[in-house]
Amino acid sequence: MGLVSLVFSVGRLWRKTCIVKAMILLITPSARSQECAQAVHAATGHPTQVAATLQEAGSCLRSQEYAAVIVDQFLLEAEPDEGDRVLQHLGTAVPVHVNCAISGIERVVREVRAALICRQREEQVARRAAEQALWCELKESVTAMLLSCDLALAVPGVPQPAAEKLRSVHELACQIRTHLATAE
After folding, report:
1. CATH topology assigned to domain 20-124
2. Where are the domains of the chain?
């Protein structure tokens, strides 16, 4: 496998490994928290962990990445300062605010599903934009490499070993351009 093919296959592998099923954190003192966590796990496929207090949630967030964090509004209203500290540690997790006192498990599941779908769409758009920007930047560099190689090879009296190296660089740049064209 050539270097260029290896780089592009690693890029595809990287994109696939970035789409990992992370856990969901449910923060609520509700007596039905385990039942709710099981329903969220069943509906989303994401393992769901329960934290009964904001302090417990804070230590969970410091030790693990989560796809979503479901926060019971009751806790945020009862301990606003601690709630702010917990929300600062969300990282890339999407926050889902619910009122467990009045929301049924089905509603919590619907809101979590909707938040995860929205997050997935946003990640896809951001990933595409980043890839597009990278491809545009690489295309310019590849074009410059090809032009430089052509100009250097056109200079009379280029030593044979140097000409071979330039042809090799030219061939690699052509391969990169081909991969970029197929990746779009």
Report:
1. Rossmann fold (3.40.50)
2. 3-13+128-183, 20-124
3-state secondary structure of 1: coil
Pair of tokens at residue 66: 């989560």
Give this prediction's pTM.
0.68
Q: Angle 111-114-115 (CA atoms, 0-180°, nearest 5)?
A: 85
151 C-beta neighbours (distance < 10 Å), count: 10
pLDDT tens per residue across span 36-55: 999 999 999 999 999 999 99
Identify whether the C-beta of residue 136 lies closer than 8 Å to the C-beta of residue 180: no
- Ranges of H-type helices in 19-104: 33-44, 54-63, 73-78, 80-88
**pLDDT digits over 120-176, tens only?**
999 899 988 888 888 888 888 898 999 999 999 999 999 999 999 999 999 999 998
